[in-house]
Amino acid sequence: MMKRILFLLFTITQFSLLAQTTISGKVTDSKKQPILGASVYLEGTYDGTSTNEKGEYTFTTEETGTQTLVISFVSFETFVKIDDVSKFKNLQVKLRDDINSLDAVTINAGTFKAGEKAKVTVLKPLDIVTTASAVGDVLGALQTLPGTSAAAEDGRLFVRGGNAEETQIFIDGVRVFTPYSPTPNNTPTRGRYSPFLFKGITFSTGGYSAEYGQALSGVLDLTTIDKPDQEKTDISLMTLGVGLGNTQIWDNNSLSINTSYINLGPYTAAFPDRNNWLKPYQAASGEAVYRHNFKDDSMLKVYGAFSYTDLDVIQDDINFEDGFRFGLQNRNLYINSTYKNKFGNNWKIESGVSFTNDNSTVKIIDDVVNNTENSAHFKVKIRKQFSSRFRIAFGSEYFITDFNEDYTPVNNQKFDYGFNNNLFASFAETDIFFSKNLAAKIGVRVENSDLLNQFTVSPRTSLSYKTGKSSQLSLAYGQFYQNPSNNYLKFHQDFKAENTSHLIANYQHTKKNQIFRIEAYYKDYKDLVKYDSEIASFDSNFSNNGTAYAKGIDIFWRQNQKIKNTDYWVSYSFLDTERDYRNYTTSATPNFASAHNLSIVGKHWVEKWQSQFGITYNFASGRTYTNPNEPGFLNNKTKNYNSVSLNWAYLIDQQKILYFSVNNALGTKNVFGYNYKNTPNTNGNFDRQAIVPNADSFFFVGFFWTISDDKKSNQLDNL
Amino acid sequence: MKKVLFIIAIFIATGISAQTKYQKGMQKAFDLWNQNKLTEASQLFERISKAEPENWLPAYYAATVEIISSFGVKNETVLTAKLTKAQEFLDAAKSNSENNPELIITQALLNLGYIAFDGQKYGMTLSGKNNMLYAKALEISPNNPRVILGKAEWEMGAAKFFGKSTAPYCDAIKKAIELGKAEKVEQEFYPKFQLKRAEEVLQKCEG
Predict the structure, then answer these.
(1) Does A128 score more than 80 pLDDT?
(2) ∠ CA A310-A316-A318 to the nearest 5 degrees?
(3) Helix axes B167-182, B195-206, angle to 10 degrees
(4) The pLDDT of residue B140
(5) 3-state DSSP assignment of residue A439
(6) 3-class SS at A606?
(7) Which residues in chain A have their CB less than 8 angstroms from residue B128's CB?
(8) Residue A42, C-beta contacts closer than 8 angstroms, at least 6 positions apart
(9) Contact criterion met (CB < 8 Å) for A50 and B40
(10) What is the torsional sign of CA B8, B10, B14, B20?
(11) 3-state secondary structure of A684
């Protein structure tokens, strides 16, 4: 008995000695260069080693039968081979580049990204709120990027010769129909939504993905925060008003609320501007985001925002002796809900719904206009990753807009009018990485508009090639359609969609803390709306005969920390554009487009004073206006626009911040254009009035206090 | 009877030898670590973690080595690759040991890797997260010296940034040292309190 067992034991030991197998081979990259330090092992066992300088590896194992050999190394795709263990001898393995790694090519023509997820960020999260001219507004910060025109009296995004309506804004991929707060003439607007709730920004000035439609010039997609860090309460006291925010987290849920009340009354009383305010500008707004994480990584977000704006003002106007009265009441409700989930083998589904209800009552002199817009957007997008080198995305969306307006002229009866604009769209797109150095995105979008009874097909494509270790070249082409603006659709519906094509070439060079990019583009507009009256109305004769072009060069340069504690960036845009649209009598450069735009933004942190100082310089060359005393249309140019803005954020302690900012600190008298009198004076000349900002300079003081359990966080990120 | 005893003996022997394999592997990995062969150490921890898919310790150490070796890395591609890998190990460890304070503070350390690399880019979102992580770890395990030390060190960094006194944290460090000395580690290869490091931190705090 004993003997037998001993024998058995002996045989087992023998057997295992015999069964020791040597595994060996060599690991190289795609250029046959040996890889040092790659991990080579049999999965599920302790047996393995690292490759040496020659990329070689050798180790022994007692495992037998079918085994899985794994070879992995950072920034390469992991190699896996399942075979009999005896076959893993002198195995020559070429690891493929991991195209997800940071140094791989990115498809980026036309697009700027901000946020930590982006491979190349042009704006850091803090920048939105520490840029001197931005005053905490996302739109203000984006206006320091190339491709935008400084229309300081308007505040909306004017992208590459397109007017503001040509840029669409999305939250989590779902459309925002009325993104801008209403303001009187020559007062810049702000985005309705506070920057605190967003973690990432994608701003595209052309050539964007087939996922986005109904935008001729630009797309801005804001991504809300998935999971807030901690429970806290934020209190803001500002010269313009007060703000209160609170975040609660429980189980897999979180709720963030932000409210604010702005009243310009005290400010304009202390520093009168050029207007006569009957009722000061006041705005109350509230936002809430609810997020729920499900067990399986899926996520539901519901975002809601409500705002109410009210003002009544008399503005100087050369054609109205008693001034031009403009009163406005606006209420706006926006709800956006998205749901993300994964299923099957690398499939992802994202769905979203948004709903907007916007009501404005506008008093123009003694006439009253009241309009209501109800809009909704439904969207489903499915993505599938076949491999890290090949992905597809496709989806469908439906837009509904119901617009109604009534107009009551003084001492006259009311007119009612409106329209329904429903649009169905589908898109499909594929990303192909041929190698770490060459990638393409090819997509197509189809849209069918009920209102215009039109079906459109827009191809989109872009290609990127890595020309060196830190540089890449990209090309993009796309066709874009957009229904005419509500301003025309409410009077006339027999239109075609306006359309344009973009052709873009981009070169980018990035190093740590340094980005240089230059982009050239050409845009060719067709089927723009034209009409023959001074303002669009029922009496106008409308057509789709308008055309336009825009071409230019955008340059961006950013360097961080090269000078200690200092970040700066420079944006320059050259724009050559002419339009023959609206009621233009001939093709001309529109008033909002400047040929040269320059922004220089700098920030410097002084540790000793716990302060961040910021400066922004904006320059824009003169803008066109029509001088009726001379022949021609848009025949003159204003002087150049110059503005220097400064800010100072002082961290009193970890939870209290004092913030000062001044826009146009030097008080430069900027002119945006001229208003001419309708009738000539006794000499036969038309008198004029300069269109100027309501106040040359604007300053802001705020105190921000965060209360949280750990007493550590502050609203630096809010500034 | 003999037969039974013998069979039992074999069972025990095999049991021991299986354990020894783990012990041997872990010991070897620690040796590599001590010899500063970080790549090899991390790779061995990785192999052990895959072979022992229900034990959180090897994955915890694989993550820790990757995180520690990421400090001082200048190239963002390498840094992101390292920390992404560390995150995978940490996630694997977490799935075996929920609400483990050791893993929570390691997550905070991983976040610090990003913050140390580019405070402006990552500081805004990650420092709030770290505050929460330390608070949570302390709630679960109020007398864990590693948690107390990690939290104090993190808060010291913030206080220094704001030019505040670091004195309030020295007591916490002292307490951690005391607790660390008295701590009896029950599980083999359970994270140990690094007394020498703690004393260095205390010196910085008082100095």
Answers:
(1) no
(2) 140
(3) 160
(4) 93
(5) strand
(6) strand
(7) 229-230, 712-713
(8) A23, A48, A61, A63, A67, A68, A69, A70, A85
(9) yes
(10) positive
(11) coil
Alpha carbon distance B181, A242 (integer Å)? 52
Tokens 């996630």 locate to B91
Q: Which chain B residue has its CA at the smallest distance from A560's CA?
A: B120
Measured distance CA(A261)–CA(A327) in Å, rounded: 19
Tally Cβ neighbours within 10 Å of residue A375: 21
C-alpha separations of A574 from A433, A596, B16, B133 in Å: 33, 5, 76, 48
ipTM above 0.85, yes or no: no
Touching check for A96 and chain B: CB below 8 Å? no
Mean pLDDT, chain A, rounded, equals: 88
Length of chain A: 719
Q: Which residues contact A676 (CB under 8 A, 6 or more apart)?
A: A318, A626, A627, A628, A686, A687, A688, A689
- The pLDDT of residue B167 is 83
Beta-strand relationship, A624-625 and A596-606? unpaired
Residue A550 and residue A521: Cα distance in Å, rounded?
A: 8
Which residue is associated with the tokens 């190239």? B75
Chain A residues near residue B50 by CB distance under 8 angstroms? 41, 43-44
The reported pTM is 0.83
pLDDT in tens, A239-269: 888 999 999 988 889 999 999 999 989 998 8
Cβ–Cβ below 8 Å for A46 and B163: no
pLDDT at B4: 55
The b/e string for A450-459 (b: 16+ C-beta within 10 A; e otherwise) is ebbeeebebe
Residues in contact with A625: Cβ distance below 8 Å, sequence separation at least 6, in sequence order = A591, A634, A636, A637, A638, A673, A674
Q: How many whole angstroms from its chain centre is CA A389?
A: 26
Q: What are the tokens at B15?
A: 């049991």
Q: What is the pLDDT of residues A75-122, one digit of tens each?
A: 788 899 999 988 888 999 999 888 777 777 787 777 887 765 666 677
In a 13 Å sphere around the CA of A362, the CA atoms on its Cβ side amount to: 16
Indicate the residue of B81, B127, B128 with minimum beta-carbon distance to A74: B81
Distances (CA, A) of A554 to A81, A107, A437, A572, A598: 48, 17, 24, 6, 10
Q: Which of residues 38-57 of A touch B (CB under 8 A)?
A: 39, 41, 43-50
Out of B3, B76, B132, closest to residue A229 by CB: B132
User: What are the helix (H) ranges across A466-587?
Assistant: 486-489
The partner residues of A406 in beta bridges, in order of sequence, read A370, A416
SS3 per-residue string spanning B19-70: HHHHHHHHHHHHHHHHCCCHHHHHHHHHHHHHHCCCCHHHHHHHHHHHHHHH
Query: Which residues on chain B are in Cβ contact (under 8 Å) with A717?
Result: 124
Instruction: Tell me which DSSP letter residue B187 carries.
Output: S
Contact A45, A63 (CB under 8 A): yes
Would the pLDDT of A605 be above 90?
A: no
What does the pLDDT look like over A430-474, one tens digit per residue? 999 998 889 999 999 999 999 999 999 999 999 999 998 889 999
pLDDT tens digit sequence for A290-314: 999 988 779 999 999 999 999 999 9
Coil vs helix vs strand at A139: helix
